[in-house]
Amino acid sequence: MTRPGSIIVCCVLGLVLFLLLTAWLMPGDLELQIALVKEKTPVLVLPLKPGERFTLHYYHSVENAPIWEEHSMDRAGKIYIEEERYEKFGAGMGQMPGVGRKVRKGIYEAITDMHMPTGDFILRVGSPGVDHTIIWRNQRFNLSDTLAHKAVKFSGESRSMLYQIWRSFKDFMIGFTTLTTDK
Fold first, then answer.
1. Which structural domain, as residue segments, surrounds residue 63?
2. For burial by CB atoms within 10 Å, which of 27, 73, 107, 170 has the most?
3. Is this structure's pTM higher than 0.85?
4. How many domains does one find in the chain?
5. In degrees rounded to 5, what are phi and psi of residue 149?
């Protein structure tokens, strides 16, 4: 004869296993990973929603004029360039035939509606003054301050819901530990 306690334990374990499996198979958000090319170590990992934009801002090395490149990712983690803005054309800048449309945005020229796939790409981070900066959700990460002259790879990753929950828990625990040890 089976005891009611063991039936309850089996049902609870089965439910937990089902929830974990579902969270593992269910798609979560995306991550933008910026990693050092040689060392293959991430230096910045940013969660993104599909279609959410992040910006690469810098100063053109020849013209010393500001440039903004807006990028997004699709559900599979593929990176696209969406828009470029600048004061004036510099070497290597300008509209490509059949890609986007050229408009004025205040004092800036812009190429909008590009949605051109770049996939993963490598950036050689410029010196301070070039200020290669990632702008994401109103936060700025200046890569030139700490990674000048290093090559970094931008790549997108699709994550499972389980990974996303784990990452949130881990970040919460790190923040909690920092709060409790700073007192």
1. 26-176
2. 73
3. no
4. 1
5. 70, 10
